[in-house]
Fold HAD family hydrolase.
Amino acid sequence: MTGAGAGAGVGAGAGARLRAVFCDVGGPIYDDENFVAAVLTALDELRAADGLGPADRGAFRVLYDRSRAAQGVSLRGALAEEFLGSASRRGELHERTREHWFHPPGTLYDDVLPFFRSLREVAESLGSPVAVGVLANQEAPVVEALERDGVAPYIDVWGVSAIVGYEKPSPELFRWALDAAGVQPHEAVHIGNRLDTDVRPAAALGLGTVWVLRGEAPDEPTAEQLAEPDIAVPGLEGLAPRLESLVASRGAA
Ligand SMILES: [Mg+2]
């Protein structure tokens, strides 16, 4: 794999080198149930202010699973309509959710630190730097959680929406991260667990894409959905060594 660099003789479209890896946070790094807990607390508070009881958990899961399956439906709008009486209250729900959204100790996936260690080994074997970034719609305290859990030392680029001021799926957050890493889109890979906010916007800009099938990803993705990313994986185990060839094969295409 490391022989795929300059002069490897794979033709005029010789593959690009891997120079940056960006990673979503909710799903790939932390359990999306942290977000679910925040939304449910927010719904319960807003309903209590209206004199209503807690949101029905079963009904919540139906809407949540429908949103996961579709990979493009506004979950907030559907939740606001179902539990707050109007989809127009989605902004209110969003703001209240932000106040409760944390990543408690113990919610980092077990394969995260091995993945970033492995990625560092890949960069060393390449003999050229690979910038590593988070690229996520998250609140600022996520940085403290990543420091607490030992992830921060691996991160060069902090593409956190609440800090940078751009949100996925807007291309601005991706462009900001590419600029911060000093790389071109075809030299970078984005890893995320949603098609609508990760895979599609990243692919549209020309980044390689990895779809991680956990959290907000569907339990049973369709063939059409699985065809959208360059690769789909159940988790981060074994992923790092595949990223260089992913970029090289796309660059040669
Ligand atoms: Mg995510």
